Amino acid sequence: MNNPSTLVIIPTYNELENLPLITGRVRDAAPQVDVLVVDDNSPDGTGGKADELAADDDQIHVLHRTKKDGLLGAYLAGFEWGKERGYDVLCQMDADGSHAPEELHRLLDQIEDGADMVIGSRYVEGGKVVDWPRDRFLLSKGGNLYISVALGTGLTDMTAGYRAIRREVLEGIDLAELSDAGYIFQVDLAYRAVEAGFDVREVPITFTERAIGESKLDGSFVKDSLVEVTKWGAQHHTTQATELASELGRLAAYEYRHSPLAGLGSKAKNAATFVSDLAGELGKLAKYEIDRKVRK
User: Fold this and answer.
1) Which architecture characterizes domain 6-214 according to CATH?
2) CA neighbor of 148 nearest in space, from 157, 140, 139
3) H helices within 173-265, ranges in order?
C-alpha cells in the first residue's frame, strides 16, 4: 500500500536500545509511512535518542510527554497529534520489537481493501507467538476466547496492540470514554468500533517476546481486563452471562488438566488455581451484575 498519510505511533518508556532498531525496521519495511515516537519522559534518555533520529529523518517525529500515565494516555496523545496533521491511517506498534514492522503491510493491505480497523492477531489462523511460557500463552489465548464469546465480536485477539485504524474510527468514537483499567482499552476500542458498525478485521502476525529490556506488563492486568469485560458482557447479554462464566470456568479447568501444564509441578498448579479462582469470581460478578440490572 502506498499511502503517504499513514502514521505509525510508537509509545516509549525506557526503550533507549530498542528505539533505533524498531524505527529503522519500520523505515526499511514501509518507507512510505511516517513514524511518531511518543515518549513519556523516559529517564534512560529515550526521548533524546528519538530527537536524534528525527533530526536525521524528516519522516520520524517526536512527541514528548512530561509524565508517564499509561499506554492509553500515550496513544490518545498520538492519535490527537496525527489527526491534527491530517493523517488518514494511524497505526499502533510496540517499541520492543514484538510487533514485526515487516508485517505492517498485511494490516495496511486490508485498510486499502476497505477495512476500518485491522488487528494483528496472534490467534487467528496463521498467527503465532514466539518465546512465551506455555502458561502465559494459555492464559492469554483463553482470556481472548472469553472476551470474544462474552462480547460476541467473533474476533480472536482483542487485547492485541498491533493495529491500523482509519481516522474516521477515532473520530466516530468518544475516546475519552475508553476504559483505563489495565490494558483493557485495546478491547474497549475494538468493541466500540464493532458496535458502531465499522469494518474490523484481523490478520495473522508473529508476536515475538522482547529481547531487550523488561516487560511493562504484570499478571494483574489479565484479571482486571476479564473482570471489566464480564461487566460489559452482563450489560449486553444479561440472560447468558452467568451460564457463560460457568461454562468458561469449566473449560479453563479442563484445558489446564489436559495440557502439558499438568506435569509442570507447582507453577502449573498455581496457574490452574488462579484460573479456577478467577472463573469463580467472574461467575459471581456476572450474577451480581445481572441481579443489579434486574432490580433497576
Assistant:
1) Alpha-Beta Complex (3.90)
2) 157
3) 185-195, 220-236, 241-257
Confidence of residue 136 (pLDDT cuts 50, 70, 90): confident
N-term to C-term CA, the chain: 51
Helices (H) and strands (E) in the chain, counts: 10, 9
Q: Is 67 left (phi over 0), alpha (psi -120 to 50) or beta?
A: beta
CB-neighbour burial class of residue 48 (10 A; exposed 0-12, middle 13-18, buried 19+):
middle
Q: What does the alpha-carbon distance between residue 103 and residue 237 come to, in Å, rounded to a whole number?
A: 36
Q: What is the pLDDT of residues 164-179, one digit of tens each?
A: 999 999 999 999 999 8
CA distance 233 to 230: 5
Distance CA 26, CA 94 (A): 11
Take residue 128 and report the three cell numbers written for it.
503465532
Q: If you search the block for the grid coordinates 515518549, which residue do you land on?
A: 39
Tens digit of each residue's pLDDT (9 = 90 or more) over 89-101: 999 999 999 999 9
Distance separating alpha carbons of residues 39 and 237, to the nearest angstrom: 39
Task: Give me the residue spans of the domains in the chain.
Answer: 6-214, 221-295
Q: What is the pLDDT of residue 74?
A: 96
The CB-side HSE value for 294 (13 A sphere, CA atoms) comes to 10
